Amino acid sequence: ILEPGILEGLSSVEYLTIESNEIEVIKPYSFIGLSNLVFLHLSKNKITELSNNTFSGLENVRYLYLEDTNLKTVNAGAFLGLSNLTLLHLSNNNIVQIHSDAFVRLEKLETLLLGKNQIKAISADVFKPLSNLISLQLSENELDNLESDVLTALVNLIHLDLPGNKIKQLPEGILRPLKSLGSLYFGNNDIKVFTRKTIPKAPPLLYLYLNNGNIEEIESDAFEDLKLLSQIHLNDNKIKHLDNKTFAGLNGLYYIDLSNNDISDLNPQLFYNLPSLRRVVLDWNNIEPNALEEIYKRYPEFIHLI
C-alpha cells in the first residue's frame, strides 16, 4: 500500500519508478510533495483500481506508465491532478470499463495506450477532453462496434490503432472529424469481405494496415474513398483473387504488401496506372508461374518475390 507521506522529502526527484512490486492500493494524496516529478512508472504491480485524487500534486508529470498492473476499471476523475500529462500507458491490464469522465482535465495528453485489455464498449464522451491526442491505441480488446461519434473530439489524431478486435466495419462518419489522421491500423478484425463501407469516407489517410486478418475478398471499389493512400498492408490474410480495378485511382500509392495470402491468379493489369508505385511484395502465395513471370517481366524494378 502506498500511503500519504511515504514519499515525503523527494521534492527534487524528476524520475520515480516503483515497478514490479506487490502494490495493490494507492491511497489518495500519496504523491503529495513530488512537485518536480516528470516520469512516474508504476507498471507490473497489482493495482486494480484508481481513486479520485490518487495523483494529486503531480502537475508536472508528463509520462505515466501503468501497464500490466491488473487494473479493471478506470473511474471518473482517476487522473485528476495530471494537468500536463502527455503520455498515459494503460496497456496489458484487465480493463473492462472506462467511465465517461475518466480522462477529464487531460487536455495536453498526446498518446493514450489502451491495448491488450478487455474493453467491450466505449461511451461517446470518454475521449471528449482529449482534443490534443495524436496517437490512440485500442488494439487487442473485445470491441465489436464503435459509436459513430466516439472519436469526434480527436481533431488532431494522427495514428489510430484498432487491430485484434471483433469489428466488422466502422460506422458511417466516424473518421470524418479526424482531419489529421494519417495511419489506420485495422488488421485482425472480424472482416471477411472488405468493401467500400468497411472504412467509410476518411480524411487524408496515407497508411492503411489490414494485415494479419481473415480477409478473403476485396471488392473492386473498396478503396474508392481512400484516394491519397501511399501504403496498403494486406499481408497475412486469406485473399484468393483481386479484381484488376482494386487499386485504380490510387495515384500516390507506392507500397503494396500482399504476402502470405492464397492468391493464385494475378493479372499484371492490377498494377497499371499507378505512377507512384515502387514496391509490391508477393511472397508466400500460390501465384501461377506464368503469371509471376509476366508480372516480373513488366515490373522488374519493384516486384519482390522469394
Q: How are the SSEs placed, and which strands pair?
A:
Blueprint lengths: L14 E3 L21 E3 L21 E3 L7 E2 L12 E3 L7 E2 L12 E3 L21 E3 L21 E3 L21 E3 L7 E2 L12 E3 L7 E2 L12 E3 L21 E3 L21 E3 L7 H10 L4 E2 L2
Parallel strand pairs: 1-2, 2-3, 3-5, 4-6, 5-7, 7-8, 8-9, 9-10, 10-12, 11-13, 12-14, 14-15, 15-16, 16-17
InterPro entries: Dev_Immune_Receptor, Leu-rich_rpt, Leu-rich_rpt_typical-subtyp, LRR_dom_sf
Pfam families: LRR_1 (PF00560), LRR_8 (PF13855)
Keywords: Glycoprotein, Leucine-rich repeat, Repeat, Signal
Features:
Leu-rich_rpt; mainly beta; Leu-rich_rpt_typical-subtyp; 2 domains; 17 strands; Leucine-rich repeat, LRR (right-handed beta-alpha superhelix); 306 residues; 13-stranded parallel beta sheet; repeat; 1 helix; 3% helix; two-stranded parallel sheet
Number of strands: 17
Task: Assess the beta-strand content as a share of residues.
Answer: 15-25%
* CATH architecture descriptor of the largest domain: Alpha-Beta Horseshoe
- In percent, how helical is the residue content? under 10%
* Unreliable residue stretches: none
CATH level 1 name of the largest domain: Alpha Beta
Counted by DSSP, the helix tally is 1
Distance between the termini: 56 Å
- SSE order: EEEEEEEEEEEEEEEEHE
* Count of all domains: 2
Oligomer: single chain
Major pleated sheet: 13 strands, parallel
- The largest sheet has its strands arranged as 1-2-3-5-7-8-9-10-12-14-15-16-17
Name of the CATH superfamily of the largest domain: Ribonuclease Inhibitor
**Alpha-beta classification:** mainly beta
Keywords: Glycoprotein, Leucine-rich repeat, Repeat, Signal
